[in-house]
């Protein structure tokens, strides 16, 4: 744990006031890409923090259709909604890439909440932020065109993008966009084809490359009125 804290300022900020009697109970877990870390409707007694990689948080409908609520990265946590009352998970958590997490059992998590005011404030603030984003997304899904939502999401992904010769690489693929916006892949393909023809993006197998940030933001603004 000491090495993890030394190499991860984001994680250190979360755990900075965690009492030693709680800190020593953290466990490290690693999952390969595609592994289901937690399954919808199952009960788990752990709180998780991601320290490396990306995870897809999604819900599956009775007809098998997936609805992706978010992609989590380093510093994001899950299990907080269900852990207090041992409720079944609302969503499934899948490793989008190789994933490394730390986790702590419910008993020690509750002890941590009770003894660490810094963490109590942090988790309250981030829960409010997550609820705000989900509410905003629900409104956008209802009020705005698919083109706006795709452009808006790609702009949001830019801050985690990696600069390459092809453009800024963002970890997004067609399947994920289809799940996130609950539309067919044909609809997603139509939007991506349009953006590609405009010289704004290139589409890879598992990533999208942003070639022009300025043009992408222009399309985002223009599609608000569609």
TrEMBL record:
<dbReference type="InterPro" id="IPR036390">
    <property type="entry name" value="WH_DNA-bd_sf"/>
</dbReference>
<protein>
    <submittedName>
        <fullName>Crp/Fnr family transcriptional regulator</fullName>
    </submittedName>
</protein>
<keyword id="KW-0805">Transcription regulation</keyword>
<dbReference type="InterPro" id="IPR014710">
    <property type="entry name" value="RmlC-like_jellyroll"/>
</dbReference>
<feature type="domain" description="Cyclic nucleotide-binding">
    <location>
        <begin position="21"/>
        <end position="109"/>
    </location>
</feature>
<dbReference type="GO" id="GO:0003700">
    <property type="term" value="F:DNA-binding transcription factor activity"/>
</dbReference>
<dbReference type="InterPro" id="IPR018490">
    <property type="entry name" value="cNMP-bd_dom_sf"/>
</dbReference>
<dbReference type="InterPro" id="IPR050397">
    <property type="entry name" value="Env_Response_Regulators"/>
</dbReference>
<keyword id="KW-0238">DNA-binding</keyword>
<dbReference type="Pfam" id="PF13545">
    <property type="entry name" value="HTH_Crp_2"/>
</dbReference>
<dbReference type="Pfam" id="PF00027">
    <property type="entry name" value="cNMP_binding"/>
</dbReference>
<dbReference type="InterPro" id="IPR012318">
    <property type="entry name" value="HTH_CRP"/>
</dbReference>
<keyword id="KW-0804">Transcription</keyword>
<dbReference type="GO" id="GO:0005829">
    <property type="term" value="C:cytosol"/>
</dbReference>
<dbReference type="InterPro" id="IPR000595">
    <property type="entry name" value="cNMP-bd_dom"/>
</dbReference>
<dbReference type="GO" id="GO:0003677">
    <property type="term" value="F:DNA binding"/>
</dbReference>
<feature type="domain" description="HTH crp-type">
    <location>
        <begin position="144"/>
        <end position="214"/>
    </location>
</feature>
